[in-house]
Amino acid sequence: LLNLKGEVIGINVAMVSGAQSIGFAIPINQAKKSIESVKKTGRIVTPYLGVRYLILNPELVKKEKLPVENGVLVRGAEDGPGVMPNSPASKAGIQAEDIIIELNGEKITQDNSLALLIKKYNVGDTIMLKILRNGKILELKAILEERTF
Fold it and tell me: In angstroms, what CA-CA distances link 132 with 27, 99, 103, 120?
């Protein structure tokens, strides 16, 4: 996938011909990171924090009466806990019902999700998380580990 300057900006991976030929592509920066990972390790290594969460949106903020409008609410479901045992999040002290509002100074929003921010980093990188817990702001350090599942 090229831009108007002829620069590669993505790798086309799928197309839906019956829907006005909508295409799907992997962003080039993600592809470059995967290629470097394969060169170094022989496989694609993905960084992992170990939280399940709900992205804050106006409906959730209103329903839960949350004090902030952006971030992610750490919360488990029937299929697992909010903080995975022995995960980087667990080791950093993140708890269920915490609201993660920033990662390394970048605000977490619907458009700038926690998952997208984590993808910018590598396994072994230390990240700073700004957490809202019981009305208090905390800063926690986490060391990203490799996703193994």
Answer: 32, 5, 12, 23
Burial of 144 (C-beta count, 10 Å sphere; 0-12/13-18/19+):
buried
CA distance 105 to 130: 8
| Coil, strand or helix at 2 | strand
Q: How far apart are CA 123 and CA 147, in angstroms?
A: 9
For the cut 90, the answer to whether the pLDDT of residue 118 exceeds it is yes
pLDDT digits (tens, 9 = 90+) for 79-103: 889 999 999 999 999 999 999 999 9
Q: Which residues contact 39 (CB under 8 A, 6 or more apart)?
A: none
